[in-house]
Structures are given as structure tokens and as C-alpha cells.
Amino acid sequence: MAISGRKGFQLFACLCRVSRYSCLENNFSSTTAFRTRTKAIDENAIAESLTKASRDTKLIDGQAVAAQIRKEVREDVERWVAAGNRQPHLSVILVGKDPASRTYVRNKIKASKLTGISSTLIQFPEDVSEKHLLDTIEDLNKDPKVDGILVQLPIPPHIAERKIMQAVDPVKDVDGFHVINFGLVCLDMNALMPATPAGVMELLRRYNVDTFGKNAVVCGRSKNVGMPIAILMHADGIGETKAADATVTICHRYTPREQLEVFTKTADIIITATGVPNLITGDMVKEGVVVVDVGINRITDLHTGKTRLVGDVHFDSVHKKARLITPVPGGVGPMTIAMVLKNTMRAAKKETLSALGNTSPASPAKMLSAVSSDIAALVTNTALPMCGKTTAVQDTVK
Q: Does residue 108 carry a catalytic annotation?
């Protein structure tokens, strides 16, 4: 495995309560104090995670890899600030009181704090107008002290999701959802990649999974997860995205089981993100397969009556055949937040500007002016279609 044996950290810190329309500022003026406060906790946490992973040699431990990435981001932030640069800043927008969204935002704020990235949480009630939300995003786009902008999904149905996503400046789009960033990924160019697909690719790299020429099945076709993963798995690997160079088959939740089984039985790598519990079972895979399960589904245990989280893969039966497999939870989920932080640091350093002509646009609309009018109209005015059933976990499964 490519995971370092060095120990690293566990998230701690509480998210302060905020009132409607309030902003939460987490500023950390002393890098030295931050280092001292988190070092011991960091090391103890990754040690525990790696010890747990060592009990199951087939397990891809997303917790441990995410902790290692956060450690790398923290060290990058420390070098950046020590060189005289401003501390990177992430602004997170949360609309409504969805419990899952509040949890994800809280975890992102915590992780930002521990990596030395300052953050602002901007909260709006469920009935906030689309115009108010767009005006807020435009203010953040223009603020030179804001490096990354993240709008937590889902947002209420009276607001056009696609319109909101395309309002974020592409150079600050740390979720990687803007059409410009997605297009750059398709062209194998430097971009802020969608966080979950980037996390999946990072897991494969750090576990030294050979992807060159391998048969890979991507089960899922959402615009934020399934399709970017398929593109990154299929591209030739010589460009800026460092893609996988695999032979990719794309399936989805409505692929007939008998046909899906034809593809999965020959797959060397299976990546699934459909939101369908137990879609892939042990009899559908071959020995030695590598499985990355992005799905998160809440089901009721028939024996205990309690709810629990499961993936798209029937873990027990597939685990018996797999060479490597991600658990749910604890697999891909932690990677999404880690890659958002990595994107924020990259945004602060303006690493993606070369692909955009080395200038930050005055507004995303100006970037879209280069796109044909019909596509621009689609991007601006059309609500984002959701493929298949929407689960409670909007960050990972769509």
C-alpha cells in the first residue's frame, strides 16, 4: 500500500451555533500555535485508523487516506503562510435545516480549521430567494479574501440548482461543479475536479491499483459523480488530470441485472454510485476485483429494527472475492471533504489559472460568453436534472 506509516489526525473542534443569515468566522492568526495544538491529536488518530485497517488487508481505508491528505494540506498551508501569503479562506453556504447537510457542513468547517484554512459559514432559511442567494455568491466571487466557495447541496426546489452552481466563479469552485471545470476535466486539463471523483482516483493511486488497460465498470451517471469518474478512469493518463487509462463501461441503476452482471463479472475494477442498496452482489463479480463503493443508503435492519448505512455493494458477499474494497461508511465519504480542502488550497495558489488564460474572470457569465448561446442558456436557466433516486447524502450519490 502507498499509505504512509506515519500517524496523523482526528477532527476535533465544535461548530458554533449561528443564527439566520449569520456568518461564522474561523480565523487562525498563529500557524505555530495551530501546529502545536493539533500535532498530538493528528498522530493518535491516524494510528488508530491504520491499526483498524491492518486487521483487514482487503479494506481500502478512506479515513486513513483522508487524514493523510489533510495532513499534507496542513503542511502546504503552513509553508504558504510562512512564505508571507494570506491564509486560505473557504466560504460555505448552507440553505435550510436539512440534518444531513448540517452534519456535512459541520465536518467541513472542522476539517478546514484543522488544516489551517479559515472558513465562513453563511446560513439562509429554507425560503431564501434565488436572487438573494445569487447576489451572495456574486459578492463572494468579487471578494479577494475568499479563495473557495461551496454551496451545500441539496438546495430547496424553488431555486434552480444548476443556475446556482454556474454562478460560482470557476477559479473558486472547490466542489468542481462548474461547467468550465467539468469541461477542463473532459479535456484532460488542469482544473478544480469534482471532490468525490477526485477522492476516488486518489484512493486508487494511494493503494497502487493498476488501472492501465484494465476493465473498469462505473455504475452511476450523475453529472457530479458518475460521469466525472468515468471520464477520469477512461482518459489516457498523460494529461494534467493524471487519469487512469482504463477501458470503461458505464452502467446505471436501470441497467437490467442480467446485463449488468455481464459487465461486472469481467471487471477488474468496479466503482458504483447509484444509491441502490445491494445492487452489486458476490455472484456478480470475479475473484480479485477492486471495488470502490460511493453509494450511501440508509436502510432498516430487519432483525433489530434500527437504521444503518450501507453502500450499493453487498459488502459481505463481495468482500469474499475482492482484492480491495471500500467500506460504507469510512470509505469514499471522508475523501470528499479532504479533496474539497485540497481544492481550496489549490484555489488559493491559483494553480488552475493557466487553463483559463492566467486571468481570473470578472464573473462566470463572461466565461460562458465564449460558449455557444444555446449552451449558455441551458447552463443559466435549466434546473439540474437528477438521475435516479436522490438519497440523503447529496455529496456522494446522485
A: yes
Q: What contacts 214, CB < 8 A, 6 or more positions away?
A: 246, 247, 268, 269
- Cα separations in angstroms, 375 against 170, 248, 368, 398: 17, 27, 9, 22
Which residue's C-alpha cell is 480565523?
27
- pTM of the entire structure? 0.77
Residue 301 annotated among the catalytic residues of the structure: no
Q: Which of 76, 147, 175, 312 is catalytic?
A: 175
Residue range 14-44, pLDDT digits in tens = 333 333 333 333 443 333 344 444 444 454 5
Lowest model confidence (mean pLDDT) among 137-151, 169-183, 285-299, 376-390: 376-390
Q: Is 175 a catalytic residue?
A: yes
